[in-house]
Predict the 3D structure of the following.
Amino acid sequence: MANSQQMANAIRALAMDAVQQANSGHPGAPMGMADMAVALWGRHLKHNPANPQWADRDRFVLSNGHASMLLYALLHLTGYDLPLQELKNFRQLHSKTAGHPEHGITPGVETTTGPLGQGITNAVGFALAEKLLAKEFNREGHAVVDHHTYVFLGDGCLMEGISQEALSLAGAWKLNKLIALYDDNGISIDGQVAPWFIDDTPARLRACGWNVIGPVDGHDVEAVADAIALAKGSTDKPSFIVCKTAIGRGSPNRANTAKAHGEPLGADEITLTRNAIGWSHAPFEIPAEVYADWDARAQGSEREADWQQRFDAYAAAHPELASEFTRRMAGDLPKHFAQVAVDLVVHSHTAAQTVASRKASQMALEVFTAQLPELLGGSADLTGSNLTNTKSTPALRFDEAGEVVQVEVAVGERTVHVGGRHINYGVREFGMAAIMNGIALHGGFIPYGGTFLTFSDYSRNAIRMAALMKQRVIHVFTHDSIGLGEDGPTHQSIEHAASLRLIPGLDVWRPADTVETAVAWSVALSNRNRPTALLLSRQNLAYLPKRDLGDISRGAYILSEPQDVGLKKKAQAVIIATGSEVQLAVAAQKLLAESKVAVRVVSMPSTTTFDREDVRYKRLVLPEGLPRIAVEAGVTDFWWKYGCAAVVGIDTFGESAPAPVLFEHFGFTPENVAATVRAALRRRR
């Protein structure tokens, strides 16, 4: 019979020892949640330490990521590839035990948590993905997708505004396999939270459509385990278990105080704590019998083997479904994707349509969503403006029982019944972005979602987390400049393109026409290890004739040479432009040609992609010795890194007026671009 108290004390000991050795960290939360962890990981969690990527494992999210030593202790004790030495190296350079859990670094860590509130929101994405995949792939007698998402969270997560966005959506979507355990200890860094956090949390959760259980004694393993069992029986609501705990449980002088939160206990207090909890072992020493009680390897292997046997039977009965499920969980695109992408680009080139790039995006999505069932779209209450919906992606809806509503969709000459693939996130940009991260992390879907570019500020931290975790998440940001017109400076993006380009690992595309938009989508879908932001116009953009289609995917390419406007001489300068301003660059090139000034026009739809190119290609596109003039309806500071002689940009906020009036007012005219080029050439001479 497992000794639950010693199992919990092992977590407490490892947490306080690791934090003490690092002289940095948060021992209180792991010590307070240790019994909750025994109840979940020791009694309920379905996982296999030998295979952290097993498709049907339960997902566990530690939303209060500062309690990272709780998770590291659990992974080590249950048998993951996280040796004791890594716990001794807690918070040290190149260790697998960073200050906050990091996906892709530590085996068994499902998502990177640290910014509070995003973990619970990622968990909503996990649970939604599970529910949609189960509906799509399970068949009678074959439940190959059947797992829960568990999340630990604390007061800090609930104080962050994103939590309300996530909790509300989880209730609306009736995610009954989402189970949250609330570490209700009443302490944060500044002390007792009562003066600034008076929410009736259970009432709040009930109002959001959750099944609330408790409060229960968070230090009573049996009570917590029973509460989890009760939560697993919910058929139409996510569950929220209130666990009353003491932060720093076991510490005679630090328990229930802010002192236990974010600093080592100290050698003397650790000695007192060891005595108080009856743990006589040396630092980082775990008795063999405790390891045996925690060891989940044999049970995990049996559970996965049982699932594999059932999946093999499923594959025999439904081979096409099994093959498709395997492909999608691996994150592979269909074999015919490359040809679909090429055909789309060629068609866009041939059609040469004049449309807004947001419309060009929808045209590309019509093709891709019809061919890629893993594309799961959405919008933050701006579907009609972002144009993220297609004929293949009906709205996602749930019935009163929590089942995914099936709708009729035409596939060629056939009519099929499918679940919705376009999510109405409501006015929740941050929540949408973090939920999409969870969907991508779960596997089986490529999520994309839309809002206005100026509102990327709301979702920025979740975009950053997608880049940090190297997740294929696609953000559709429309209304990308002063070109949106009358809505005015609150909605007009000025600094946003440059700001997003600063996020390491995020690809940013600002296409100039239908072809560049099609290429941007193709590259975004192919980028399995990085997120993408597509910056799209509200106003129509004329198609720009291309010398070649092959180099667009490299982020920048030669759009037009002097010969293309009837000037038989070498370029004297290069105009670099993005998005809606490329047409200004082309018009300026023609004006300059009339006075025998030869200019090359370079369209640079993705600076981030171009920056990864080799030096040879960069010099081919931007020859050394020629003055460069950048044109973009945004802040000028960004462009100086390309060695520009001048930048036509905007370093103030916009104004409220029709778009043509604004472009002229701020100097975005062919005449001003041409004049800027001439001035740069005069300075050079």
User: Anything to note?
Assistant: The CA atoms of residues 299 and 453 lie 48 Å apart.
